[in-house]
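Minutes, project check-in
Item: structure for the 158-residue chain
Input as provided by the requester:
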Amino acid sequence: MNGDQHHMPDMDGITITDNKAGSMNDQKVTMMHPMTFFWGKNAEILFSGWPGTRDGMYALALICIFFLALIVEWLSNSKLIRPGSSNVVAGVLQTLLHVLKVGLAYMLMLALMSFNGGVFMVALAGHLMGFLVFGSRAFNDTKEVAYQKTSDLPPVAC
C-alpha cells in the first residue's frame, strides 16, 4: 500500500508502521505516560530521558523540584521593589518578577504531570518550607499590620 499506515493505539502505546513504496522498514514507536501516581525512580521529568534510571540523577531531579517550589514561594512572598522607586521601573520589575514566578510555577506543574509520587512529595515539601520561611509569621517580623501588603506580586490562582 502506498503512503503511511497508522494502526490504532493498543494498550502498549502507539504503533506506527512505515510502509512507503520501496521501503521495507517497519518502525514501532511506543509512548507510555502514566495517568496515575506511581512510586519509583524510573520517570521522565520535564526533559526527555531525564533523570534516566540512575539513583543519583533521580535524587538530583527531586532536589531541583524542591528548590523550584521553594523559589516560587520566595517570589510569591518577597518585597524586592524598594519604596520610592519610579513607577515605570517598579512596574517593569514587578512584571518581570511576575513572569518569572508564573514560568517557574508552570515548570513545577509540568514536573508534577510526570505523576511520580516522589516528585509530588518534594514539591509539597518545597512549598511547605518556602511558605514557612518566607510567607508565614514564624520567621517574619510580627509587628506588621495584618492588612499591609506582604508581596510585590499578586497571588497565583489556579
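Outcome recorded: The CA atoms of residues 46 and 111 lie 5 Å apart.
No further action items on this chain.
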